[in-house]
Structure formats: structure tokens, C-alpha cells
Design brief:
alpha/beta; four-stranded parallel beta sheet
């Protein structure tokens, strides 16, 4: 069996968008019966929420959509994560900048913004400021679906 494709979803605090993306991507992978081929996790660029569970708005939206919530406690991305993961997926431009700083650059071209896979340069809507978890979910499902298709064509 080939090595698993490792995907790290990253946002500022690792309680809203990246945890939603981790759960959505895990769900999509299972729906496609590819779970043996993937390892999916999430992390923060900051230390503000370390140890905290997913935001209640993320949990509520995932339950509404019948997507299992992956048990998770916020953790911070490390320089070692860059070597350990195949895809490091940021939710917005500030995340990409901070991820690149943490990793000491993007020498292997592994850092991406989620919505670029869906053909958009937009950031994933941040519900921390808007409270709009519906808009965040729409962005996350669009980005994760496109990311899975990209990986299927490129790596599977």
C-alpha cells in the first residue's frame, strides 16, 4: 500500500475554519471510500486557542449537514509539519503568509489557499468576525471537493 496522502488544514485559531475543513475533507474522503489513502489533520498559525475544542458554530453547522465532527483540540502548526505533510492548506491570505513564515518558506510548493482549488483567489469566509457559519461551510465544501478532485487526478 502506498504512503498516505497527508493534508493539514490551517487557519488562525484552529477552532472554526480549519476544524470545519478537517471534518468536511474527512467526510468526503470516506464517502469516496478513500480513507485508507489519507491522513487529515488541522492546526493554527497562532497560539490563542491552543487546547480548545472546535467552535460551537462549526460543530452546529457540521451537525446540521450530517457531517461527523472530528474530535480535535487546537494545536499550532510547526516547522516540522512542513516536512510531514504533502498539502498544507490555509484558509486565507494571512494564514498563507504565517504558514510560510512558520515553515521557513515553501521550498517544495506544498502551501496552498483552499479556494484556489475551486478556481478562486478569495479567502474562506471567517465566521469568527461574521458569525456566518453558512458562508464558511459553502466555501469549505467547495474548496474541499475541488481539493479532493485535484489530489485524485494528481496523486491517486
Amino acid at each position: 500500500m502506498p504512503n498516505k496522502i497527508k493534508v493539514l488544514m490551517v487557519c488562525h485559531g484552529n477552532i472554526c475554519r480549519s476544524t470545519m475543513a478537517e471534518s468536511v475533507m474527512t467526510h468526503l474522503v470516506k464517502q469516496n471510500k478513500l480513507e485508507d489513502l489519507f491522513y487529515i489533520n488541522s492546526a493554527a498559525t497562532s497560539r490563542e486557542e491552543i487546547g480548545n475544542p472546535p467552535h460551537y458554530g462549526t460543530v452546529s453547522k457540521l451537525r446540521e449537514m450530517n457531517i461527523p465532527v472530528i474530535p480535535h483540540r487546537a494545536t499550532q502548526m510547526t516547522a516540522e509539519d512542513y516536512d510531514d505533510y504533502d498539502y498544507l492548506i490555509g484558509m486565507d491570505t494571512a494564514n498563507i503568509r504565517n504558514m510560510t513564515r512558520i515553515a521557513g518558506g515553501d521550498r517544495q510548493g506544498k502551501i496552498y489557499k483552499l479556494l484556489t482549488f475551486a478556481g478562486s483567489s478569495r479567502d474562506v469566509a471567517d465566521p469568527w468576525y461574521t458569525g456566518d457559519f453558512d458562508a464558511t461551510y459553502d466555501d469549505v465544501i467547495k474548496g474541499c471537493s475541488a481539493l479532493l478532485e485535484y489530489i485524485r487526478k494528481k496523486d491517486l
